Amino acid sequence: MTPQDYLERTQIMQGHFRTRFPTLWSALIISLLGTMSSAQTPSLMQDACARAAQTYFHDYTAKSNMTYNGTRTDGTQAINGRIFLETRFEDVACSFDRSGRQMVEFFAEGQYQPAMVHTSTGTNTTVTGVSANDILNVRSGPGVRYKVVGALGNGSRVRMLDCAMQGNARWCQIEMLTDMRERGWVNARYLSTGAAVQQPSPPAADVGGTTTERVRFVSGTSGAELSGALPPGASRRYELGASARQMLNVRLSPNRSGLSYQIFNPDRSSLVSQIPASQPYRGQLWQTGDHVIEVINRSNRRLNYKVEVWIR
C-alpha cells in the first residue's frame, strides 16, 4: 500500500466513524482539544524554571540554558539547566506536574529547595491607582532597570510574596492568580494592601512578649546554632550584622508544630514574609547592617526550638 493509498483509506474510515457515531466523535475531538489547551508547552516550563532560578539566586538579569528532558514514569516532567551568574554558573533542575502548569520540585546547589516551589502563602491583594487607559508594568526584577515581562490593569488580583527596597521605592514580587502562576515585580504603591503592610517593621523590643538577642559568631566561623523556648503568643528577635550580596541561611527546628519566622532588612522593610518553621530560607541580602530574624509562637503551648544561622 502506497502512502497515498493509506492516507485515503484513513480519511474514509474517519468519515464512516463521524457518520455512524457523531456524538462520540464530537466528544473525542473536544477531549483532544481540551488536553492540548490545558497542557503547558516545554518552552513555557523552561521559562518558568529559568525565572525560578533567577529568583533563587536574586539575579534577575542572569542568562540561562534550560533543557526539557521529557516525562518521567510517575508522570512528572523534567527540566534541567544552568544559570550563568556574575562570577559563576549553577546547575538547577525543575519538575512539573502532568499538565506542566505546576512546579512541584526545584533543585539548586545540589539539594531540594522547597521555598521555590509554587505553594506560596503570600497575601492576596488588588492592583489600584492605575488609570483606566493605562497599565502597570510587571518586571523581571525589583526596579525599572529590569525588563517588562507582563502588564496588569487596575483591579487585577494578585498574590504578594516578598518586598524589597530599591532606592526610595518599594517593590514587591507578585504571583498571578492563574493556572500558570506567573511571577514578576511591581511597584508596591500600586498594591492595595496599604503602607502598613508594604512597610512592615518588627515589634518594639520587650513589648507584647517579644525579646531580642544579639547573634555573635565565634571567631573564625560564619554560623551559629541557638536554642530557645517561647510561651504561647511570644516571639524572639535575633539581630545579626551582615553585608549586601552576602548569602543568608536560616533553619528553624521546633520540638512541635506551631512556630513560624520572618526576616527584616536593616531599614525594617520585609525581606521574607512570615513562613512556617518547616521551610528553610536561603537568599542573598540586599542591604548592609543589622538584619532581624523573628521567631514567633502562634500555638497555644510552650515550644522549644533550635535555630541555625549562616552568613556566607
Please provide a written account of the structure:
There is one protein chain. Helix 1 packs across helix 2. The chain has four helices and 20 strands. About 13% of the residues have low confidence. The chain has three domains: 75 residues, Nuclear Transport Factor 2, Chain: A (Roll), CATH 3.10.450; 76 residues, SH3 Domains (SH3 type barrels, Roll), CATH 2.30.30; 102 residues, Sandwich (Jelly Rolls), CATH 2.60.120.380. The protein is globular. A hairpin with a 5-residue loop joins strand 1 and strand 2. The chain is α+β, with helices and mostly antiparallel strands.
Give a concise summary:
By secondary structure, the chain is of the alpha+beta class. Helix content is 18%, strand content 43%. It has a 5-stranded antiparallel beta sheet, with helices on one face.
Secondary-structure map with pairings?
Elements (H helix, E strand, L loop, with lengths): L2 H18 L1 H17 L3 H16 L5 E9 L5 E8 L4 E8 L6 E6 L2 E2 L10 E4 L9 E4 L8 E5 L4 E10 L2 E8 L6 E5 L7 H4 L11 E5 L8 E8 L4 E8 L4 E8 L4 E6 L5 E7 L4 E4 L4 E9 L5 E9 L1
Parallel strand pairs: 12-14
Antiparallel strand pairs: 1-2, 2-3, 3-4, 4-5, 6-9, 7-8, 9-10, 10-11, 13-20, 14-19, 15-18, 15-20, 16-17, 16-19
